[in-house]
């Protein structure tokens, strides 16, 4: 079984590639809440924070749609208690299990990949509505988080075409879902989205796939 099939399980890999890959978001409820438990956990996050020296912006905080300044990393606990989302970039370089997983993804898909971690707090929103310039798989590790996904306004944006310079779409999201442990959400690049943790702290990994653009 390919690593993509493992990520998507129980959803059909063939159906995903035919109907969703690079074109439409899909929510995949899991049959196993421990599906990604070997990759990451609260314990592994705590270990990283205690024993790794991070530099900004590889570790940063976001609250109410704004990324906090570098100096605020010194007040990490205070800001987390205030509801700021904690982001650690490139955890595939820090956690052996994620390193191996990401290597398998690269070999399977043939594209560059990286993994970031996000820790969010109940009823708090870190980022405002935005899109990414690469495809992402959200892998829910702990807690729950509600996601809202909207159509693209710029087809297949390039790396330099950030959402900050674009206007979000009007209207309702075409996909609204709540992720619990083991669930997966796939969002194609260019599709606007935002998320809010619900009644408990949320921990998820974002697997980013950087497809070739032909440019």
Neighbour order of strands in the largest sheet: 1-9-6-11-5-4-2-3
Query: Which structural class fits the helix and strand makeup?
Result: alpha+beta
Rg, rounded, reads 16 Å
Largest sheet: 8 strands, antiparallel
- CATH structural architecture: Sandwich
Q: What is the fold-level CATH name, i.e. the topology? A: Jelly Rolls
State the order of secondary-structure elements, H for helix, E for strand.
HHEHEEHEHEEEEEEE
β-strand percent reads: 25-35%
Q: CATH homologous superfamily name? A: Cupin
- Could you name the ranges where pLDDT drops below 50 across 5 or more consecutive residues? none
Molecular shape = globular
Task: Give your account of this protein's structure.
With 215 residues, the protein is of the alpha+beta class. The chain has a single domain, classed as Cupin (Jelly Rolls). The chain contains 5 helices and 11 strands. A hairpin with a 2-residue loop joins strand 2 and strand 3. The two termini are 32 Å apart.
Quick rundown:
20% of the residues lie in helices and 30% in strands.
Key words describing this protein structure:
alpha+beta, 215 residues, Jelly Rolls, 20% helix, 8-stranded antiparallel beta sheet, 5 helices, 11 strands
Question: Helices and strands in order, then pairings?
Answer:
Blueprint: H1 3-8, H2 13-19, E1 26-28, H3 42-51, E2 59-63, E3 66-67, H4 76-81, E4 85-88, H5 96-109, E5 112-120, E6 135-142, E7 145-152, E8 175-179, E9 184-187, E10 191-197, E11 202-210
Antiparallel strand pairs: 1-9, 2-3, 2-4, 4-5, 5-11, 6-9, 6-11, 7-8, 7-10
